[in-house]
Amino acid sequence: MAQIFCIANQKGGVGKTTTAVNLAAGLARIGQRVLLVDLDPQGNATMGSGVDKRAMALSVYDVLLESATVAEAVTVPEKLKEAGAAYAVLGANRELAGAEVELVAEQRRERRLKDALAAVAADYDFVLVDCPPSLSMLTLNGLCAAQGVIVPMQCEYFALEGLTDLTNTIKQVHANLNRDLRLIGLLRVMFDSRITLQQQVSEQLKAHYGNKVFDTLIPRNVRLAEAPSYGLPGLLFDPSAKGSKAFIAFAQELVDRGVRG
Ligand code: ADP
Ligand code: MG
């Protein structure tokens, strides 16, 4: 049965999508069967996995509106196969922004993704859901479907404050909608050990959240930022880059933790 994890943080530009695509590629590289679900209408995880968001016949939008099954709507990009780390992609594009409004009057609207994923749970070891930067009906669908949340974060001054909002949201969803949901861990991303403030915030994080802070640190690495324009996860675009090695280590850490709860 697949372990389903949301990659979430209500802030934009913190590294959610970079984490989602590189973790998907890293897990695939170490032999796991992975499905990446793009829940952001920007479609960055879709494009970053080598799927043209404008040319998709079916997307996560069709799945949420129940006009397609997950199995019908996923693709395994050729580029990922060629790079030796194939994972399946349930893509998103701007059409998804409309789902929010269209779902308002529907039954079980926050459980659409959960119900749809149930049909493919045996086909994957991991399902990763790249969430948009908000607590919208889309993110709620992700949180209802998941057993855990992985939170990428930068070690900046207001990081801890933002985390309180997110952990409260997780608690609320846990209490009201999804008893399985828990915080899996905090992933320090875009880390630069030369910056004293980042080291300090990192220490504070460990003091507050203990072993909920993943051991792996993702460094700031320009190769990870360049990769999306080639339609590949950084980990496959330049496997020898520091950031790529860090994501392989993170994938391994996640598997080793045996987070199934
Ligand atoms: P989000 O999905 O949270 O909005 P992204 O993953 O799109 O965030 O990242 C925001 C920007 O930061 C992107 O331009 C991305 O390429 C860049 N970025 C993310 N992680 C790293 C990293 N470890 N090193 C360098 N740049 C990064
Ligand atoms: Mg994103």
Task: Write out key terms for the chains shown.
binds magnesium ion, 261 residues, binds adenosine-5'-diphosphate, seven-stranded parallel sheet, alpha/beta
Fold and architecture overview:
- The chain has helices spanning 16-29, 44-47, 60-64, 70-73, 78-82, 95-103, 112-118, 137-145, 159-176, 196-209, 222-226, 234-237, 242-257; strands at residues 3-7, 34-38, 88-90, 126-130, 148-153, 182-191, 213-219.
- It has one domain: Rossmann fold (3-Layer(aba) Sandwich), CATH 3.40.50.
- A 7-stranded parallel β-sheet has the order 3-2-4-1-5-6-7, sandwiched between helices.
- It has 13 helices and 7 strands.
- The model has no long low-confidence stretch (mean pLDDT 95).
- By secondary structure, it is an alpha/beta fold.
- The structure holds adenosine-5'-diphosphate (ADP) and magnesium ion (MG).
- Residues 12-18, 44, 133, 189-190, 218, 220-222, 224-225, 243 line the site of adenosine-5'-diphosphate (ADP).
